[in-house]
Design brief:
Layout: E1 13-20, H1 26-33, H2 42-55, E2 57-58, H3 59-65, H4 75-82, H5 85-96, E3 100-107, H6 112-118, E4 122-125, E5 129-133
Antiparallel strand pairs: 1-3, 1-5, 2-3, 4-5
């Protein structure tokens, strides 16, 4: 038997939903955050944007392929098991109003900035963009 005596980590992930009217762009993301070109936090949020953009999977594809989606489980039951009923209602409204809806995951072992957001619960909301990352498993 081996016993590990040095630092042990346990990585984790957090689901998010993106609802975007039109393309999910850096400009739309920054406007939603209220960040200007000269914001000292711009680099942090650019990294978050790139990561989220690369993780986007269309909502229904994400659900049907997710290992946590149970056989015969409705999309509503799946989403409300991860997020709130209100988030499910927002998704339904977004789809009815022509938004593109995606899901993805932030992974805690993908760098300090992404780890910070992975261990946080947040919502970014503007007229043409909603990001719900309230599925904080920490």
């Amino acid at each position: 038997m081996k016993i590990k005596t040095d630092f042990v980590t346990n990585s984790s992930s957090t689901c998010f939903v993106v609802m975007s009217k039109g393309d999910f762009t850096l400009e739309k993301f920054m406007v939603s955050l209220g960040l200007t070109e000269d914001s000292p936090f711009r680099d942090v949020f650019e990294e978050l944007f790139v990561y989220i953009k690369n993780e986007l999977i269309p909502l229904h594809e994400f659900i049907s392929n997710d290992k946590w989606h149970k056989a015969n489980q409705s999309e509503e039951d799946y989403i409300t098991s991860i997020f709130s009923k209100r988030t499910f209602e927002k998704i339904q409204d977004a789809e009815k109003n022509g938004y593109d809806v995606y899901m993805g995951r932030l992974h805690s072992d993908d760098g300090e900035i992404i780890s910070f957001f992975c261990t946080s619960s947040f919502v970014i909301e503007s007229e043409n963009l909603v990001i719900d990352a309230t599925n904080d498993g920490w």
